[in-house]
Amino acid sequence: MAYLEITLRIAPENRAAAADVYGKYRQPFLDTVPGATGKELLVRDKDVQVLHRFRNAADAEAYLAGDLFTRDVTGELSPLLEAAPETRLYDTV
């Protein structure tokens, strides 16, 4: 299993809009992305994180290069971001 963590710096007043983007693309992510097994939205005082679960790291890397992420999700989130997203990939053993 692999985890893809994307940390987003989003102002508190824009977090509801970011949550809407998460909600809009959660099911398409689970239904269409190969190897996707879960997706969670984590809201903290200083940022928002999206934690994705995949069968393996290769599936996570393919998602990052695919249209759903690069065109759809990123396109809708870009106006809400205060800084570039931080992306981390964790592979379990």
TrEMBL record:
SUPFAM superfamilies: Dimeric alpha+beta barrel (SSF54909). This is ABM domain-containing protein.
